[in-house]
Amino acid sequence: MLELTDVSRIYPSGESQFYALNHIDLTIPDGEFVVILGPSGSGKSTLLNLIGGIDQPDTGTILVNKVDVAKMSDRMLTRYRRHNLGFVFQFNNLIPDLTVRENIEVTAHLSSSAGKPLQLLDRVGLIDKADKFPHQLSGGEQQRVSIARAIVKRPSMLLCDEPTGALDFKSSLSVLQLLEEINQQDKTTVLIVTHNAAIAAMADRVIRMRSGEFTEITQNSVKARADEVEW
Amino acid sequence: MVLRKRIPRQLLKHKGRFISLIFLIFLGSMTLTMLNMVVTNLQGSFDWLTEVGKADDIRVWTLNEPSNLESLGKILNADVEARTAVDAKWQDDITLRVFEVNYSVDQPVILDGNALQRDSDILLDPAFAAMQKLAIGDTIELAGRTFWISGYMALPDYIYPTHFETDLVTDPASFGVAVVTKRAIMQLVSDAPAEDWTVDRSYGIRFHPGFALNQETTENQSQTIYQDLKDRFKDRYGLVRWLERKDNIRINMVKSEIAGQKAMSKSLPVAIFMINIVLLASVLWRMIRMEFQLIGTLRAQGLSKMEVLRHYLTLPLTLAVIGGISGTLGGIGVARPFLVYYTQFFALPLKQAQYDPLIILSGTLIPVLLLGLTATYVVMRAVKLPPKTLMRGFRRKPKAMFIERLFRFHNLKFAMKFRARQMVRSAGKLFGAAIGVAFASMMMLTGFLMSDSYSSFMGDGLSDIFQYEKNYVFKTEQSINRYDGEQYQMLAARTLDKGYAILIEGLPENSQLLKLTDKSGQTIDLKPGSKACIITRVLADKMKIGPGDVISFINDIDDEIHYIRISGVAEIYTLSTVFIPLDEFNRRFDRPKDSFIGLYSIQTHHIPSEDLLLTEDMNDLLTSLDSYTNLMRISLLSIGFFASLMALVILYILFSLLIDENGKTIALLKILGYETREIRTLMLRIFDAPFLIGFILGIPMLFNFYGALMAQSFQEINMTMPLYLSTKNIVSGFAILYITYVLTRNISGRKILKIDMTDVLKSIGE
Prior knowledge:
By secondary structure, chain A is an alpha/beta fold. Chain A is built from six helices and ten strands. Chain A has a single domain, classed as Rossmann fold, CATH 3.40.50.300. In chain A, the strands form two sheets. A six-stranded mixed sheet of chain A has the order 6-7-8-3-9-10, sandwiched between helices. In chain A, strand 1 (2-13) and strand 2 form a beta hairpin. Chain B is an alpha+beta fold. Chain B has four domains: 1-52 and 246-395, no CATH class; 64-237, no CATH class; 426-465 and 618-766, no CATH class; 470-603, no CATH class. In chain B, helix 14 packs antiparallel against helix 21. Chain B is elongated, with a radius of gyration of 33 Å. The chains are: A alpha/beta (231), B alpha+beta (766). Chain A binds chain B through residues 49, 52, 54-55, 74-75, 78-79, 81-83, 85-87, 89, 91, 93, 95, 97-98, 102, 105-107, 109-110, 149-150, 153, 166, and chain B through 1-3, 5-6, 9-10, 13, 293-294, 296-305, 386-388, 391, 766.
């Protein structure tokens, strides 16, 4: 369970202050698929960074299974990320001089309960690319590898920052299908931050943001399947 | 960790750059190991020879033979042993100084072969034997007698076997030392042809431990003991010459070389490692900057700072370990031939080379430590940043903008403006290039500096001053000059301040055979009856005195203290001498009017050998200088080669970094239609100015470095060498380095061709 209470992130802007996040409250139960929508500068990436423990709030608490991430030391935050979280970024940030399999092994060794890299590659449909280097793969394939890298250590929460932002439609669909599968089969909580409103259809809950605040939170009574999403 | 698999791939990807770095580390470790091993082993051999060979503390020459050496030894609590030496003309122009074997003082130490067993056996110094192609088992003829070479030896008071004490270089082609039995020397003395053969007899004194000159004895105590001893010899046996071990040039030359090597063994590796540090930091920081987002991702995925640090340290540490271990092994390998060279050059025993584990460990660990610390600092600059900052990628602070505005580049033409901006933005690299080139030019010009200084010092310098061909020193004072030449007076003395051994020489007016000239080349005259007092440049520099100052000294013969006001300094770099007019000398030291002890002459005179203490031949000296200069040229060539290689490596790394960093700009210029040649001019010629500045900077750095080094290594000997670098050689050094520079620029320029326009455009799009 993830609980955010009165969370703010403030940046100085000249003589005034800029609220990247303005006193927000949010609760996400385990296994939920959440899509956060909003224009650039709305605070969605900041929210993801705070949940992911790569940034700290100026006010409020972020409880993950009753432990406040906001009060964690640098070392505790590293452990928190190592054991609880998986990250997927818009640009896959794969290590260019490691093969696909080795890129997954980089995070696999962080957890004693990690999955087998090759099994994971099979799952993401890239087993035949295991010994290829990232530059030998298409953009969609690269992003699938980065998802495999994120989930190999079996995180309880997967944080995705514009995972399809740099992909064409077909590649985006394959990535979304993978995320859907991870959520449903592994019961992993998935948080997706995106500009793309079409993705909202496959979420349990959709949060819309503007100027650091939630403008709308909607529960989808009927979720679309990933392969039904279109734009 | 699987991340380690990146290391060999990164090494392969940028092999040129990393091989260059490894080469520099190798060079640093090699010089560190090699120089320290050479110094340690030379010092060890020197100490061993002094101890095992029972080096004398004092050697004396007297008019009368001391009656009972054994009882004298008992009184002195020392070993006293007489030694006869014959300067034998083995062949035309080749003198072999044959010593009688001694067992208590200055005993020959066998380097190879067997000790003397028969009266027909002879031991030779190895350098002479090698030069004359004489092997153990060969025979040589001296005064009609055949001697069988039983072995090679080193004499503790002739480690640097010069013909005369005033010689600066040995020349085994014309002079060597040998040892025969006591009976054999007697036969040689009796059979010696009167002409050209000289006989010398001296007494070596070696104090027993605990009495004098051991480490516990203070300088004052030993001076008192020495003074008493000197008085005894003066009073009873008529002291002619007194030579303490610390004043023996044939020992001090070795000490001086060891001191020079010691200084070099610290400064050279330090300089190379400093360049290593700067270059590694540049290469690593470039790599880290490119991988900011990767580091951020790794941190976001849960890798700790320490894990990321460990990963990024692996590459520099791998380089340091490869370079360090190979350099250490290389150093050990190269040390041996160097040791062989030195031990032959100095007639020192080359025992089994000692491999000091501390030196070997230092050779490997110092680069690992230095580069490890540098890498830690560089990596931590990135790793300490929060992951979200890293995820944004590296952003250059606009620090150059101020300078760019300050210089108003917009008024310049495009090419000039472009280069100017590049220079401002690559200030660190340009600085590195200037320092690297300065160091390479120092190395390159070292050879030329040594060669020029040596030539000017030895060649023109010496023959301009010492215009005589023969210098005859009589055993006793003469009053009537029966031979053609310029007579002079001389005595040994010691300065009151610091106790330096000096010579006081009385010269005739307008001496034509020993020309005293000042800095401007003007002859300095010693007018008869005047109070003129000229000291040599060596003495002036050593004692930091000059015209107007008073020099005070104790004369070795009558032990009186004298004070003389200095009127000038003569540019003589090989002697610590005070020159005064001859008549003033005889008056001051209470010598008979017109008496003299030596004769400079341009002719050869047949003076009975029993009248002479020594004969010095200027031609021999000049010949030996020639052969020494030739020998030096070989090592100068190798230094020059290494300097060029270093310049190439340093510049190559900097060029390739510059091209990497400006990949996008280069691709854009290509798309716009620029030719490779034009891009090369725009991008790479920004190093032209630092190259020139570096080279120019290298010259004063070179003079300062070697000035300090010479001051340190010449402390032991009465010599200084003015540093001189000819314009011709500056231009030659510049030309060689410039060719290296252009070559490196062209090699690096080929990387421009490889930059893919589409890839770079894609990354701009992202």
